Amino acid sequence: MTKNIGFVGMISMRERLERKMSDTLSHTIPGISSVHANVLDMIGNTPVVDVSNLSPNPNVRILAKLEMQNPFGSVKDRIANAMIEAAERDGSLLPGQTILEPSSGNTGIALAAIARLKGYPIKILLPESVSIERRQMLEIMGAEVILTPGPEGSNGAVKRAKEMAEDHPEWCFIYQYANEANPLAHYEGTGPEIWRDVPEITHFVAGLGTSGTLMGTGRYLKEQNPDIQIIAVEPPLGERVEGLRNMDEGYIPPIFENWNGFDLLDRKRVVRPRESIEWTRRLVRECGIFAGLSTGAALAGAAKVAASIGPNDPPATILFIVCDGGWKYLSTGAYTADLDEAEANAEAIIYF
Ligand SMILES: Cc1ncc(COP(=O)(O)O)c(C=O)c1O
């Protein structure tokens, strides 16, 4: 005899989100239950893991915050969700309206996934030179992908998106570089989580792309303890580490200016693409953490900070951000190829 399991029929994700908003579906008890009402509830509260076996200084702990554990695979899940919610709140994103964003990377993937769950069509502009996995991910998530010329890089995609936004005021242009919801997601999420889990933190290290992570998390941490050092990692001028920007390239993200980035940052650490690859490899080989290349850059920066702390200084705890996993970079050979070849590939492919 077949047992009646009480199946009441399928409901769409959109319906579930709406029900969730009216508070009828959620049965997640924060901090206790790991049952979630939907994937968006899984954004944030990422774990921290001790990787001090990589520290060049026995007096210094190094901790990794695993943002690749977010449901769409990166730190950008936080801001994509926050930017869409903010646009819904202020009325710039109405039901069924098209979203537009230039992003070859993690922001595009997270925005596309959330847009589809919520029923918004989405157009993502990306340079044709990005790694193949990125384009595939965007297509899997349901984005309409619009390619821009490879030699113009990500700045070309941004320029084209701005022109399209002007031609189509009926679309919602998210623009993560100037969107306040980006640093706010870190001010309200990443920063408080770090303070809750690691109140002994002395240094916070992260790569700088839009600057949202550093501005939001950095400001929150400084407000709790002004002695915490906020350190940005950037590639040398003219060299590339995926996801990161050199601030002397001529483009300063509006977020960085609005959040007084020059005052907030205590230091910048320059990390070369080759070092990023080397440290990304060490992280997977010696700690089992399979991360993207900007993580190797942040870890290299953390190791430089650790090495600069003297034997008579008080013990330090450095926390750095693991932005994403390594899957999207496999085609570059970053993990397996000869180092020279991997370095050349990293220079040739545009990642953000
Ligand atoms: C892989 C990766 N790492 C680091 C960053 C930098 O983070 P943020 O934009 O918050 O400065 C980005 C974002 O552009 C990224 O995609």
- Strand order in space, largest sheet: 1-2-10-7-8-9
Structural class: alpha/beta
How far from one another are the termini?
57 Å
Mean pLDDT: 88
- Annotated CATH architecture of the largest domain: 3-Layer(aba) Sandwich
Shape: globular
Question: What is the CATH domain class of the largest domain?
Answer: Alpha Beta
Number of domains: 2
- Portion of residues in beta strands equals 5-15%
Strand-and-helix sequence, N→C? HEEHEHEHEHEHEHEHHEHHEH
Q: Give the helix tally.
A: 12
Number of strands: 10
Helical amount: 25-40%
| Largest sheet report | 6 strands, mixed
CATH topology of the largest domain: Rossmann fold
Unreliable parts? 1-9, 22-28
Summarize the structure.
With 352 residues, the protein is an alpha/beta fold.
Structure notes:
The chain is an alpha/beta fold and 352 residues long. It has two domains: 43-73 and 186-348, Rossmann fold, CATH 3.40.50; 76-173, 3-Layer(aba) Sandwich (Rossmann fold). Helices cover 40% and strands 14% of the residues. The chain is built from twelve helices and ten strands. It has helices at 13-21, 76-90, 106-118, 132-140, 153-167, 181-197, 212-224, 254-258, 261-264, 273-287, 293-307, 339-348; strands at residues 48-50, 60-66, 99-102, 122-127, 144-148, 172-173, 203-207, 229-234, 267-270, 316-322. α3 (106-118) links the parallel β3 (99-102) and β4 (122-127). It binds pyridoxal-5'-phosphate. Pyridoxal-5'-phosphate (PLP) binds next to α7.
